[in-house]
Amino acid sequence: xxxxxxxxxxxxxxxxxxxxxxxxxxxxxxxxxxxxxxxxxxxxxxxxxxxxxxxxxxxxxxxxxxxxxxxxxxxxxxxxxxxxxxxxxxxxxxxxxxxxxxxxxxxxxxxxxxxxxxxxxxxxxxxxxxxxxxxxxxxxxxxxxxxxxxxxxxxxxxxxxxxxxxxxxxxxxxxxxxxxxxxxxxxxxxxxxxxxxxxxxxxxxxxxxxxxxxxxxxxxxxxx
Length: 224
Fold this sequence. Notes:
Blueprint: H1 23-26, H2 32-43, H3 48-54, E1 64-74, E2 83-93, E3 96-105, H4 114-117, H5 123-135, H6 148-164, E4 168-175, H7 185-194, E5 205-210, E6 213-221
Parallel strand pairs: 3-4, 4-6
Antiparallel strand pairs: 1-2, 2-3, 5-6
Helix pairs in contact: 5-6
């Protein structure tokens, strides 16, 4: 079903359930979908952990949440499946707009590596990957063992930042488990290192810039 551009406000966390690709499978206590819904609904704004982390970067400090859209789909070339982001958020401060895509994690992994995702080397997937890499200004030749999900979530933020003429594109990994082994933090670390940046938690990391859009990533740990 094609995503419409009309959004209806939520009532509570349960309003998010019907938006999932497989509500009965993914809507479980202790897992990411329900945890993210409760975190954002209970905050009625940016979750405290995210707000505090963003405040460590002056250009996005003191940002106000304007709107958050659950399960937001961003179309990509080279196939029919979009990037379905757990949350798309638009924030604003005195410097202007920033676009956030959120990938929430509890015990779930980051899915396939680039190598496994494109093992048949199809024309469509090759087109999509080249488009994504161009959007996120990814120039490393060592992408094969990195996680494809991190690529298209970050690209989603950049694509939407372009559409809204925003200054910043931010991909946030919102983890609901403390264990680095369970939340697959090392996959995030390897992605950051491919940009030759230092991986840190709770701090926005400026990876690169593209067409005057600053591209950040942020890892935060949230409580369930």
